[in-house]
Design goal:
This protein is of the alpha+beta class. The chain contains 20 helices and 26 strands. InterPro entries: HET (IPR010730), HetReg/Transcr_Mod (IPR052895), WW_dom (IPR001202). This is WW domain-containing protein. It holds the Pfam family Het-6_barrel.
């Protein structure tokens, strides 16, 4: 049995100044046995790393300490100053032994090799150092304690006096990489507000920045940077929470070499947007590192659906942590009421998380990320399997069901009953096959055009449908138009150039054509294009097969693909899709007429309507102009142009912006004779 020791290593029954006899006396200490923490005292354990030479065995003390979330001055005085450690666990099969000292002797504790290599580099020769390290301070074999402690990690990291990031041991070129990062960070910085790479003040009038953008690193430096950013720490899921919550200094360690986090925050975007010959997987990887840096810098809080999608490629040893590692980063007002519980199965955790999101937001957009391909967990078809990577990039949100709220019931634990409109059945499916080069993309676009267009069909509605199905979003998708994207007309010109064969033998492309081709490949890679019986083109998951149906569900921005079963009402959810001609509410209200279009307002103000002929903008759907309100409702227009609706009985005020326009409820549609259906997703 283990007993607590003094946290400062000065318990009079332990002489921590003496060298450990472990290196001299061959004996096998018993395995360390954790003493349960006192939940009523909100205890956590701290690890005191005792001093020693780098080559001597690792000796630590483990001490439980009350750690209230909002301590009184008296309680705070009993909490020691401590540091936290962020690292990649590594394989559980490759372990190292450390030794826990207590007043009753020495016991052994196994840690992974990577942590075992970090501890000697963190240890001082002449004094103790206090840490919180999850693998040591939490009894990983106790699901109840693990659940409780994981829920406290944000609080622990936010109160640490510093965070040490262990990237791994020194390699033959790690110093070369860190030298390059230091050089960049000393000369440029990244403005996360404007997304611009800027020269430091002393270099504003020099030409260094332009020269850097044009001149790649030498091959040796570039290879070193590649290997540096491929280190496993950068792939970890938990680092998002750990780095996000630290309010003090963050130091990255590679062996004994250190650099501050700010260097990574400035250097990663500079590398991402340079002309260096990164492989596509490295570009994507750097993009996620830049997203992490931006989140930390701006203390951004993403909604659950966005956050879990951002981190989908990150790695964690327990698939339940796909959910639990992100909870503390959600917006304060997004209380999904999920508590870490490692007694639940992975399938239960994912189902409960999906339901919590549905109930909180009353939207089905999370379900559009479903990609079931026959492997992975046994979960209901409407539950995303977050344990496996996505095959394709996330679809851009459209407005297939406008800003309606989801209507659903749970007839039983795994069945989701939803309301929607059946659009059409799929009669042709073609998997996309985008290779790694731009010329591969040219060939694939021409191949797909040969299937979905007539020969030399370079204008007209069908050509535009094909173009928009490939790209899904243009500058005019936003109001005002967003020049970050290519305009619809320019996209069509670029597509015509591709189909006319003007690029067939080219090895270089204009910047606009390159952006077009990269975007088409980015949107279409890992997907399938399809054609419905009513001749609508679409793009969705590769799991789509002939005979599936396209539907629009209340409370979902995307079209959804459903697969019929032997039951008339039961369907399997195949995934979200772009289906041309129904992404602007046409399945609910019919086509937009007289020049009107649906747009996303900028910056981030939701959906609106713009007339392309008159440039008039409004928030209310013009198709609802002559639709009567249900009884006991009245319409009011605010000074900012927003339209609200007031219930005359309760005085309750709702708006179309919040998705509660009383004319867009399923009940209102049924009263108007709309062909609504109930689907049971199993």
């Amino acid at each position: 049995m283990s007993h607590p020791a003094s946290i400062d290593g000065e318990d009079d029954r332990i002489d921590t100044t003496k060298k450990s006899p472990l290196g001299d006396v061959p004996f096998k200490p018993p395995q360390y046995q954790y003493i349960p923490l006192l939940e009523g005292h909100q205890e956590i354990r701290f690890m005191t790393l005792l001093p020693g030479e780098k080559s001597s065995p690792i000796r630590v003390l483990l001490t439980p300490v009350p750690f209230p979330s909002n301590p009184t001055p008296e309680e705070k005085s009993h909490i020691p100053s401590f540091e936290a450690l962020s690292y990649a666990w590594g394989s559980e099969q490759d372990q190292r032994e450390i030794y826990v000292e207590s007043c009753y002797g020495t016991e052994s504790l196994n840690v992974t090799r990577n942590l075992g290599e970090a501890l000697p580099c963190l240890r001082y020769k002449d004094r103790s150092r206090i840490f919180w390290i999850d693998a040591i301070c939490v009894n990983q074999k106790d699901p109840k304690e693990r659940s409780q402690q994981v829920g406290r990690m944000a609080d622990i990291f936010s109160k640490a006096k510093g965070l040490n990031v262990w990237l791994g041991s020194k390699s033959e070129d790690s110093d070369v990489a860190m030298d390059g990062i230091e050089t960049m960070a000393e000369k440029v910085y990244y403005d996360y507000e404007t997304s611009e790479i800027c020269a430091r003040r002393e270099l504003v009038h020099s030409n260094w920045l332009n020269e850097y953008a044009l001149r790649p690193f030498k091959e040796k430096q570039f290879d070193a940077l590649l290997r540096f950013f491929r280190r496993s720490w950068f792939e970890r899921l938990w680092i998002w929470q750990e780095v996000y919550h630290v309010s003090s200094t963050i130091t990255l360690m590679c062996g004994m070499r250190t650099i501050p986090w700010s260097y990574i925050s400035d250097a990663a975007p500079s590398l991402r947007f340079s002309d260096l010959p990164w492989e596509e997987k490295d570009v994507e990887h750097l993009y996620h590192i830049v997203s992490l840096c931006r989140t930390v810098k701006q203390k951004s809080r993403w909604q659950f659906g966005s956050l879990i999608d951002y981190t989908r490629t990150c790695k964690c040893s327990d698939p339940r942590d796909r959910i639990y590692a992100l909870l503390s980063m959600l917006p304060v007002d997004e209380n999904l009421k999920i508590e870490p519980d490692y007694t639940k199965t992975v399938s239960e955790v994912y189902r409960d998380a999906a339901l919590a999101e549905l109930r909180f937001w009353r939207r089905f957009d999370l379900l559009a990320t479903v990609e079931h391909h026959g492997e992975g967990l046994r979960v209901p078809s409407w539950v995303p399997d977050w344990s496996i990577p996505r095959n394709a990039n996330k679809l851009f949100a459209q407005y297939a069901s406008l800003q309606t709220k989801a209507e659903f019931k749970m007839p039983c634990a795994n069945t989701l009953e939803v309301v929607g409109v059946m659009v059409s059945q799929i009669e042709r499916v073609e998997h996309t096959s985008f290779g790694p080069t731009l010329q591969d993309t040219v060939k694939e676009i021409k191949r797909l055009a040969g299937i979905f267009l007539e020969p030399n069909e370079l204008h007209g509605d069908k050509f535009r449908a094909f173009c928009l199905t490939l790209i899904t979003v243009t500058a005019e998708s936003y109001h005002p138009p967003w020049t970050m994207y290519i305009s619809t007309a320019r996209n069509e010109e670029l597509l015509r150039d591709v189909l006319r064969g003007r690029l067939d033998r080219r090895t270089s492309f204009s910047s606009t054509m390159q952006s077009f081709l990269e975007w088409v490949a980015h949107r279409g890679r890992g997907r399938a294009m399809f054609l419905t019986k009513d001749r609508r083109m679409g793009q969705g998951t590769r799991a789509i097969i002939v005979g599936d149906f396209v539907a629009v569900l209340w409370g979902c921005y995307y079209a959804m693909v459903l697969r019929p079963t032997d039951s008339d009402k039961e369907y399997q959810l195949v995934g979200g899709a772009y289906c041309h001609g129904i992404m602007k509410g046409e399945a609910l209200l019919g086509p937009l007429l007289n020049g009107w279009d649906v747009v996303e307002t900028r910056p981030g103000n939701g959906m609106g309507y713009v007339n392309r002929e008159t440039d008039v903008f409004q928030y209310e759907d013009p198709r609802l102009k002559d639709v009567n309100l249900p009884r006991r409702w009245k319409r009011e227009e605010k000074a900012n142009g927003r339209v609200v609706f007031v219930n005359e009985d309760s005085g309750r005020e709702v708006s179309s912006y919040s998705g509660r326009d009383p004319r867009l409820t399923p009940e209102a549609f049924k009263e108007r004779g709309a062909p609504l259906q109930t689907f049971q997703l199993i």
